[in-house]
């Protein structure tokens, strides 16, 4: 081929039709794509911003609700505390009143106990001056040095003649046998008495008499008398008499 150097590489040439309108189209399309991409990015960003704001607003509303609930609970707790404080004050006041009442009752009980002691003394003095008394005890010897006659007289002081005195009396001999202290009930040495407690029932007086036989080797020292009145008043008497034999 004319004008071709032998031995050199030859590039193929392509013939393209000249179209200036296509270049303008591609440039416009590129710019439009860039603008659309920017608009889409802005819209997406705006959407995300709105979504974030809505989420934040929802969270803020939830926090406000929780805050309101906490405030209500706190208000209830404050009311309960106030009620408990008032209850505590009332309890303290009531406790003071109870303690004062207890103290007053204790003082009253002490006063009543003193009154009881006083009235018991008065009643004891009155009983000593009325009711059952041991009027006389007589012991007389016989021809037998171990046999004795006895007579115990009990009577009712201030008797009105209509009221019976009721009760019982116990009589014992106290002495020594073989250097030992011995107490012998009257019923064991007197055939006239078959009860340890001799029954009393009289208007004015009652005689308790009979014969007693001292056991061999027994030396009498005293006569012990324990008497109990059950009506018309309650009274007890414990009295000892020396062993004295009348002539």
Describe this structure in words.
This protein is of the alpha+beta class and 247 residues long. It has two domains: 22-129; 131-242, Sandwich (Immunoglobulin-like), CATH 2.60.40.3880. The chain is built from one helix and eight strands.
Percent strand equals 25-35%
End-to-end Cα distance, whole Å, is 206 Å
Quote the CATH topology of the largest domain: Immunoglobulin-like
* Rg over C-alpha atoms, rounded to the nearest angstrom: 65 Å
As residue ranges, the low-confidence spans are 121-127
SS summary, helix count: 1
Kindly state the percentage of residues in helix: 40-55%
Mean pLDDT: 81
Strand count, sense and closure of the main sheet? 5 strands, antiparallel
Query: So, CATH architecture of the largest domain?
Result: Sandwich
Write down the overall geometry.
rod-shaped
Structural class: alpha+beta
Task: Write a brief structural summary.
The chain has 247 residues and is α+β, with helices and mostly antiparallel strands. It has one helix and eight strands; from the N terminus they run αββββββββ.
Spell out the key features of this protein:
8 strands; 3-stranded antiparallel sheet; rod-shaped; 5-stranded antiparallel sheet; 1 helix; Immunoglobulin-like; 247 residues; alpha+beta; 44% helix
Topology:
Layout: H1 20-128, E1 131-141, E2 147-157, E3 165-177, E4 180-185, E5 198-202, E6 205-213, E7 218-231, E8 235-242
Antiparallel strand pairs: 1-2, 2-6, 3-4, 3-5, 3-7, 7-8
